[in-house]
Every structure is written in C-alpha cells, then in structure tokens.
C-alpha cells in the first residue's frame, strides 16, 4: 500500500521485472494482481519478507541472489510507527529492527 505500491506500479509500467517484498501473502498477492492488470506487465512477483526478522531478511536475500540474474534498483520502503514497545524473537526492539536493521542488512546482503 501507499508509496511502495506506487513505486512498484511505476516500475512495472516501465516494463521492469518488479518484486514486491511483503509481509502478508494475501495483501501482497492482491497488489501483484492489481499492478499486473493496470500495467499488462506479467513480470510482477511477490516474495515474502518481514524486515523485523533478520532470518526473514537473510532468506529473502538468498532467494533473490539465487533466482535473479541482476538487481538494478532496491527500494527500501518498509517501516512502522506507533507500535507499542515489543521485542522480536531475535531479541531486537521491533520498530528499530523493522525500520533500520532489516533494511540495512538487506541492502548489504544484496550488494554482493
């Protein structure tokens, strides 16, 4: 939703192979189908990613590096605000993990 979906829509309109990295399979698949229908671009894909989980970030990065020949653009747009204080299963504060640590790790893993 929001800015991330608008960016994905614009990239797909430019005929780019576009990967939507989403926490929710249902919401992500709905966005993929909407973008494909709006652009006619079949190369819009869904991959699950929860940036609050470093294990999820590592698994996503491994899959992208294994499945994609190259990566031209990375848009780190995930973020949360206003959540009650919570600790992730990995022992990190949830907002800090989601907004900073996860995207930082993802970027560094994909740089190769």
From TrEMBL:
Single GO term (MF): oxidoreductase activity
Domain of life: Eukaryota
InterPro entries the record matches: NAD(P)-bd_dom_sf (IPR036291), SDR_fam (IPR002347)
Alphabetic keyword roster: Oxidoreductase
Keyword Oxidoreductase among record annotations: yes
PANTHER family referenced in this protein's UniProt entry, alphabetically: PHOSPHATIDYLINOSITOL-GLYCAN BIOSYNTHESIS CLASS F PROTEIN-RELATED, RETINOL DEHYDROGENASE 11-LIKE
Family: Belongs to the short-chain dehydrogenases/reductases (SDR) family.
Protein name, UniProt field: RDH11 dehydrogenase
Organism this protein belongs to: Corythaeola cristata
